[in-house]
Write a structure and sequence with these properties.
Blueprint (H helix, E strand, L loop, with lengths): L1 H7 L1 H6 L1 H20 L1
Length: about 35
């Protein structure tokens, strides 16, 4: 799941990794649901 989030939000993560790591938990859930659908 984490790899998927990095793939979509790779730019945002690189600019602010600290924020990405904290936000990825919330962002990855909806992203995973969309990919599964």
């Amino acid at each position: 799941m984490h790899d998927v989030y990095i793939y979509f939000q790779g730019i945002h993560c690189m600019k602010s990794w600290h924020t990405c790591q904290t936000t990825w938990q919330v962002q990855a859930i909806p992203f995973a649901s969309v990919l599964i659908m």
